[in-house]
Every structure is written in C-alpha cells, then in structure tokens.
UniProtKB/TrEMBL annotation:
Stored InterPro entries: PfkB_dom, Ribokinase-like
Organism of provenance: Actinomadura fibrosa
A Pfam family hit: PfkB
Keywords, sorted A to Z: Kinase, Transferase
Origin superkingdom: Bacteria
Carbohydrate kinase PfkB domain mapped to chain residues: 80-254
Protein name: PfkB family carbohydrate kinase
Span list, region Disordered: 1-29
MF (Gene Ontology): kinase activity
Length: 333
C-alpha cells in the first residue's frame, strides 16, 4: 500500500478525516457506512469459495442442553453462499464492478449458483469441475445468553470443488485481475495445497499489474489448521488485511489479546513478523466484532466502533463492514 496513512484522514466525500482515536463519527462504519453508497466506484475481483448453504437458528435451544435426538421447528433457509459470494453480495452496494472466481461443481445446483450471481449483479468467472458435486455447508446457531449471539456450528463439506482451484485457472482469469482496482482473497483457500498455490498466483498477478491485494484471515481457528509458515507469506504481499485480533495473535504464537490496550501491544510483534506495509484492520471486542484498530507499520491510524452490538444481525455483518472499509480505503487513495 503506497498511500500514506494521512491520506485516510482527509475530510469530504472521498474519505473521512480520522486521526487516532477520533471516534465513530469519522469511521468507515459511518462513512461510507454499512448499507452501500449512492455512487458506486472501483472494481473488485474476488477469489474464494462458492457453496450451497443451509442456515438455521434454534432460538429455543442451546447446544449444551442437547442430550438426545431432537426435532426442532425453527427458521431455516437454503442459499448460495461461501466466502466469495457472501463478500460479493455486500460489495455490489459499493463497487461499480464485482467479479467472482471460484471453482464449483457440476450438478443441479450449478445453474442455481449462476442465476444468483446474475441476480446480484456479479460477473461470473466460475470454473466448473465436470462430474463433481457442489460443496454444501450447514450453519446452525443456538440460543444466546441474554443479548449475546448464540454459538455458531458450521459444518462444511471437506472435499468441495473450491479446494481444487488451480494456478492455471487463475492465470486464465488474469486479465480480470489486472483490470481490477483490488483483488480480494481469503484464508480458506490456504487450507488446500492446490488452492493455496492458486491464490498465491492470483496475488502475484495482482502485484505485477498494480492491482491492490486485500486478504481476509479466516477461518478464525486457522492457527490450529496451518503452521505460520503457510500463512505469513500471503500476509506479506497484501496491501490490506482483515483479521480478528485474537486470530492474528495466535498465528504469531502470542496470547490472544483481550482489550484495546493488549491489541495495541500486539502491533510491534506484527510489524516484526510481516514485511511490507499492509494496512491492518484488526477486529476486537466482546465477540471480536465490536471494534476495529487500523494500523500500518509503526503507526496507529485510528480505532473505531463498527456498530455491531445487541439486536444487530451477526450473519453477514463482517462482509458488510469489510465492503465499506474497502471502499473507504480506496476512496482515500
């Protein structure tokens, strides 16, 4: 990222002034906000996962109470989801052009997936694996304590086509990556050696073309699934990184921070471990979603509340926030 942090502190419609600790009035959660913009700008190219997902909430049940088989009638729905679609669906409220590259299966869900991308206004760069079934995910959330959200259980099919996105398929989409203002990647692709090589290839194409690279450090337990040596190289080539602060701390082999002071204490170790000058957007708080610390090497830009709290729908909130933050960041440049 070659723009100085001071550029992110400009008042006006192209980017809010926000010195360290300036507060919510000048944060990306307030401008451009979480509900899209009137003037869509920039182009975004997303590489990630596309699946069919079944979501259900169990408002009358806690997982810890289940000691036998249970039939529960509760709100449930099936939808096209996955990291790429979830982000793209929100990003269309900000970006003039959004493209999605993902590897999907070849079954009855395939036309459903393509129709959904057309419906939300996203350019389809999908690669179909002949004869393969589309990946399926089941997301269940139980009853929370008081105003707190319930526990989420996410069951994802392990052998989904997205794990087999190849370098050659990424290179075939290289023109779209080179034309984009920003390439968005996420850590789920790192879990498979094949797709890990593919997202590294996408990042190289973007860097060579001057396309900015954004990276979302998920899943939140990635430290239990991969060694740091498999994660840090992609962080080192990113221009902006989204991460829950506890996740990043564990990747670095450090105790997860609890409050803002401990998150700030993480920053020197972060600067030592990751070369370059990425803009870090570190989420923290009671559920690691309430606050963000924005940091670039040796400098604290700002800390701001996201607007998440009791009564706010958690599903999709992180993607809404990231979309607004990307637009804010690009506008400031």
């Amino acid at each position: 990222m070659d723009a100085p942090l001071d550029a992110l502190a400009d008042d006006g419609p192209a980017g809010p002034r926000a010195a360290a600790g300036a507060g919510a009035a000048r944060s990306p959660a307030r401008w451009p906000g979480l509900d899209g913009v009137d003037e869509r700008r920039f182009s975004l190219f997303v590489v990630g996962d596309v699946r069919i997902e079944v979501r259900a909430s169990l408002p009358g049940t806690r997982f810890t109470e289940l000691t036998a088989d249970r039939l529960a009638y509760a709100p449930a729905r099936a939808m096209v989801a996955g990291t790429a679609v979830n982000l793209a669906r929100c990003a269309t409220g900000y970006f003039r052009r959004v493209s999605v590259l993902a590897k999907i299966g070849d079954d009855d869900f395939t036309p459903v997936i393509r129709r959904e991308l057309r419906r939300i206004g996203v350019r389809d760069r999908l690669r179909v694996e002949p004869g393969a079934a589309n990946g399926v995910t089941i997301m269940l959330r139980d009853r929370g304590r008081g105003d707190a959200p319930g526990t989420r259980l996410l069951v994802a099919e392990e052998d989904a086509p997205g794990r087999r996105l190849t370098e050659s398929e990424v290179r075939a989409a290289g023109a779209g990556i080179r034309r984009a203002d920003v390439l968005f990647l996420d850590g789920y692709a790192l879990l498979s050696p094949v797709s890990r090589a593919a997202v590294h290839a996408a990042a190289r194409i973007a860097r060579d073309a001057g396309t900015l690279v954004a990276f979302d450090l998920v899943p939140h337990d990635i430290d239990e699934r991969l060694a740091a040596v498999d994660v840090l190289p992609l962080l080192s080539v990113a221009d902006v990184v989204f991460s829950e602060a506890p996740t990043l701390a564990r990747v670095l082999g450090l105790p997860p921070p609890v409050g803002g002071r401990e998150v700030r204490g993480l920053l020197p170790a972060l600067d030592r471990a990751v070369p370059g000058r990425p803009l870090w957007l570190l989420r923290f708080g009671a559920t690691s979603l309430e606050l963000v610390l924005a940091h670039q090497r040796e400098r604290l830009l700002m800390e701001y509340p996201t607007g998440y709290g009791p009564g706010v729908e958690r599903a999709g909130f992180g993607d809404r926030l990231a979309s607004g933050e990307l637009y804010w960041w690009l506008s400031a440049r």
